[in-house]
Amino acid sequence: MVKKATIFMKFVNGQVSRGYCVNRITLTNREVIAKRNALFSEEQERQAALVRRVEKIRVKYTGIPKECTMVMNKSISTPADCLRHLPERMLQLSVLAYVNGEPWDMSKPLEEDCELNFAHFKDFDPRKLLTVNKAFWRSCSYLLGFAIERSFKEDHRVLLHSWPAPQIKSGSFVYDAVLPLENWEPNDRELRALGNPVRKLQPEKASFERLEVEPALAKEIFEDNPYKHSVVDSFAESTENKKVILYRCKDHVDISRGPMIGNTGFIRDFGVASVHAFETGIGLVYRFQGIAYPSAFTMSPFALGVLRDRAKIMNTTGLPNELNRAPGDSKSESTTEAEVPDTDDENEQTTQAHKAAQ
């Protein structure tokens, strides 16, 4: 942490807080990323230090190839740790955990004696399959934010705005962002380049780390982004313990209720299909639309091309009603099957953040 603190003191000529200089009016994209990552690490270490005594719990695994009971560490061991005691094939297939019948992140510590199972992309249980698919799309939207923040020059300040809940039938996952660009229309080369940061992550199998934090810390982490900062209180009010759920993949930190997939190795052919600009009350907002498919499947170039062409069409999921209409149509399309609002946090995040745009 000392090294990171020193870096920030070099970055910023401002007030020192918690060992980091965080109050300069304008930070570069890289400085903002590094600051959030450092604060996340500090809080993660603080919470880990709260576990003073190791207690054992019994975890009953009920999946294939056979049931077994594992003795794990309370508040330390995660479903990912449990997977290491199972055949290698299970590690390759398992996308999401189920603890006592409820979806559970692979990186979320187990808190009590429990029953554990895993879900995968070809699961026979339709409810699990739907949850896995939504987790996949949610994770892809999250990673689209990762790509956006890392694809522009430092003199182009990127402000991630929000993303709607996964709507699988919409044809693309999305992320809205505010950029200091006017009427930017990326060409094919630029669209390919936008997907590069995530494509590089795929072979790394980078994991998604989950962390619950107090609203005050979440506001500090996102104090450089007014859109993220503005949804912290409403997000915390919607959770049972009044905390904000953060996820980190590599050095990217964002807000989401989750769950996310286990790691980036489950994603294949990630790409940005289109970018659409639309006017709002806060100015011009760019909607980035992506496409990918799970690693458990194969797809021909022709089929992938069809999906990419579909993903180029503007996805209106989660947009204010006045923007959610077909050209020349006076009726809102927001009630179509592909755009029925989800109960996920991203839809709430988008709704709250877009209030200023209505």
Automatic annotation (TrEMBL):
GO function term, MF aspect, one: threonine-tRNA ligase activity
Alphabetic keyword roster: Protein biosynthesis, Ribonucleoprotein, Ribosomal protein
Region (Disordered): 318-358
Domain of life: Eukaryota
Comp. bias intervals (Polar residues): 349-358
Cellular component annotations (GO), alphabetically ordered: mitochondrion; ribosome
Protein biosynthesis as UniProt keyword: yes
BP GO annotations: threonyl-tRNA aminoacylation
Composition bias type Acidic residues, residue spans: 339-348
Name under which the protein is recorded: 39S ribosomal protein L39, mitochondrial
Protein species of origin: Galendromus occidentalis
